[in-house]
Give the backbone structure.
Amino acid sequence: MPQSRKPRTLSLNAFLHDTGHHEASWRHADSSVERVGDVTWIQEIAKKAEAAKLDAVFLADSPSFWGGGHRPHNQFEPITLLTALAAVTERIGLIATASTTFYEPYNLARLFASLDNISGGRAGWNIVTTFNEGAAHNFGLTGVPSNEERYGRADEFVNVVDRLWDSWEDDAIVADRASGVFLDTDKVHPIDHVGRYLRVKGPFNAPRSPQGRPVHVQAGSSNEGRAFAARHAEAIFTAHQTLEDAQAFYADIKSRASQLGRNADHVLVLPGISPFIGDTPAEAEELYRHFNSLTVPEYGIRQLETMAGVSLRHLELDEAVPLDVFGAAGDVLNNDRSRKQVVANIVQRDRPTLRELLHRLAGGRGHNVVHGTPTQIADTIQEWFEGGGADGFNVMPPLYPQLLDAFTEKVVPILQDRGLFRTEYEGSTLREHYGLPRPESVYAQREQALA
């Protein structure tokens, strides 16, 4: 008798971000701004996320100085920090951002393989191409490469890294004391890669890590980003303001992956959600308004310029944002800069003033900011999950740790009671949490093909 399929459940990550995801979170009276840069504080947050059985913690990265002095700056390189978190946690996944534009494949392959081994199979690589001019200058480039070049290098880069991770067959280590043979060198393969952007001989200098390879995560929703994700991503972090937009993206990504012969169920779509949680709707609304009252308009305007690539400095704060300033960027399935499209949709749909737009972006930089009771937040999550808009969420608490606590202590139990989220971990690796298979090496696949 065929085995019944396991019910689909949510994936939930905690997106770590200094004092919280609201740009003014550090100014809140209850913020832990004095502990920014204290690794023990971040370890405490990771342990809270693990206690709630979340799938993973996630770290973004920008390898350059943000400029300005209106909020805290990143203190840690992500892979190093996640290694410190691995030492104090046992099950929760550990996802770090690293750019294919600035790293070299062999170096990055070693870093993530080490994290996967140290953590017992919990590593994920958020693959980005980075269009930040300041970062380019920090790595010896005169400017940011074009989209075509960045994604061309990224495609080649990921293929090279995967081949390096596969270059030891799973049974290459013999460890035969009697013969004195530790390694069957016939099962360790150079990759001899010579491509348009990269030249890497290989083989890798370590065996395959517990997951075979760390989970591939991707966080771009532009035209190039979608095509890249359909080829490589196993989880996609994305930003949407409405269920309708999320559904269109979700359907597009799943279709693209299927057309490439991939199992669409193994490509998870995880939008960002930044929840302001109160015991009553009025309390949640007041919390949201209070955080926005702490914002500094100059910082918000600079962030808007970075996200959307347009300047609105000529407008008064209480002047309506013109509809035509973003051009055709509002087309959710045809855009060259994903976050610009999100901002354009806000303007086209809600007709905000500049001040209102800045407040909309202050909480999540274009991700969905929601405010309500725990039940209302759970209802939104369930609606998107069951309505074809998400496989789970990248949770972005506006204030750490208080609003992570509110989410894990008040929202997560509701999701568990509804059968939408685990009550215990069933596996020990990030792949197991996400419901993803351990990939076979290319050499195992070849042997099967020849059999």
